[in-house]
Specification:
Chain lengths: 341, 341
Amino acid sequence: MKSSIKEVAYLAGVSIATVSYVLNGTKKVRPETEQRVFDAVSKLNYHVNPLARNLRKGESKLIGFVVNDLSNNFFQEIARGLETQLTKGGYHLIIMNSKEQKETEIENVKNLIAGAADALILAPTTADCSYLHFLLDTNPIPIVFVDRLPEGFESDVVLATNEQGSYEATKALTDKGHTNIAFFGSRQDSTMNERLDGYKKALVEAGLSINANLIRFGSHGSVSQRSLRHGEMYQHTMDVLTNYDITAIFSGNNLATLGVFSFIKETNIQVPKDVAFITFDDSSWLTMTTPTLSAVAQNPEKMGRVAAKLILERVAEPSTAEKKSFQIVRISTQLILRGSV
Amino acid sequence: MKSSIKEVAYLAGVSIATVSYVLNGTKKVRPETEQRVFDAVSKLNYHVNPLARNLRKGESKLIGFVVNDLSNNFFQEIARGLETQLTKGGYHLIIMNSKEQKETEIENVKNLIAGAADALILAPTTADCSYLHFLLDTNPIPIVFVDRLPEGFESDVVLATNEQGSYEATKALTDKGHTNIAFFGSRQDSTMNERLDGYKKALVEAGLSINANLIRFGSHGSVSQRSLRHGEMYQHTMDVLTNYDITAIFSGNNLATLGVFSFIKETNIQVPKDVAFITFDDSSWLTMTTPTLSAVAQNPEKMGRVAAKLILERVAEPSTAEKKSFQIVRISTQLILRGSV
DNA sequence: CTGAAAGCGCTTACAG
DNA sequence: CTGAAAGCGCTTACAG
């Protein structure tokens, strides 16, 4: 059966205080006594009960990750980066999926704030995060945002260099002489708007006008990867390609690309002869297509690691952390040109 | 600041016991008293401290997922299924990545068993799980295995119908008249062996002999998706295709396929004219290639949900659960024939 | 219908 | 160098 500190103390012939001191190294203990404790511990195969320790110390060593859409591989990679870094800091990751529903997100945050987590990483479903004020007012814990800029609440944020990445990709297209370039984004959130800005900037710089008809957004909630292939973006692509004379496409993220490229492929449109193509988000499958597809590669795993570092700083030293002002960290993207341009 | 049950009790003018009764509905309380408690709770924005509650009740409401390789999308999908189902049961998922290292796996299990988790889901790095006997001896908690059959330890297991799926795929190839079919597996574990068995069974049934030279395994640990594309399986594919007269390939999983298909694509081998192709594991990108690739589709998200259900049964009713014998649940696969055959 | 009190398994001033 | 005791925030027999 599971043994407690009492049994160890009894077996070693010391007080539970001494057992605690030995196990935590918080006080000097006579070597012989120490040895007796160690012997008892290994004899009973004793492990401290983290619940009790944490209750006493007022912490849980758990960091919550409330993620808007765990079915998106991008966020799974962020989770992986978080796990890697938090483990190094002696913390663990507890994941809660909001499935693109704001109420679920709020419910998740409530659950974690109540005391299960020492801090929060949040990839919000929508920009409005003002609800956090009320919740954190009574239970103040550090919070770090990833991938999307929150509104109505200020804290550390980890983002990709969305505008720059998008700008470079679009510039690569204008440099090749393309003048009619379509933009597809799965959903118009802050991050997608930054990418749109980069796209516009490159067009303006090239002396081109911006045609609103060539800019399309979806509005999806949580849908399966499979249904994305023939969803809104598929329809938008069909519409743009049949009604407008475009020669290049910039796709705003991995989800949009599933729909956009599905249409291109199914209708045998030749890339890059008929239309050049670049997407935000790299995936290993982009080298498996014919031609291979160019991408603005993000590094979600690194975004996770960086977010974890930021949160660890704040939980480790609450006093200095409070003074430290909030920062927005941008993780750089990399343009990878392949056969599609 | 964060308030405790004491403050609620004080504000409501009752004892902390009464507050607990009201909040948990564990005892009938006079409506007026109840109301006063609710008022105090909302006024203080009080939430019970799960750490304290769990310590008292001897549970954490946390289920640990110790996964051999979180960089594999397959396991990320299992994690998603677990999260979905556990949340419904009032539990939460805490993820620990073993990164294909047995020592890390054992360390992770130790951590969780100590009391952080009420139960464990384990996707082991290697088959040998006898070490669990010692650990669970002192801290007995339920455990469910996913994806791989453990050796030296008995418990519930959730697996795909590996042999059947592999058999159907290979049979589809022999039915088309293929007689020289290669088999590629990223790593020879119990699951891959089951798939190999299905492959062999189909060959034997078709009256074909089994050529060991056409059966190749890798030995990778945790490597990036990118490096997989030009790793061991890439080399094996090159070797088999140049030295043996094969007309069809069956790839044992998603990781192997990255290497196998990379070689096929880079060398412009025509599929299915030069060589037909089917892979275990479906991915959305398999419809993006030319031609589209056939697959034995697993349902990892469902595997996660089923594993979660099994574990919830055991944590919910420990007494009856102990009596219940262990079961192996097989989640069926589905052969999806596309352009590559 | 309500409360005083024990206790879950720890950590940590405090005393000696 | 070691221990008795308080206390973290809860739940739950037990008593009234």
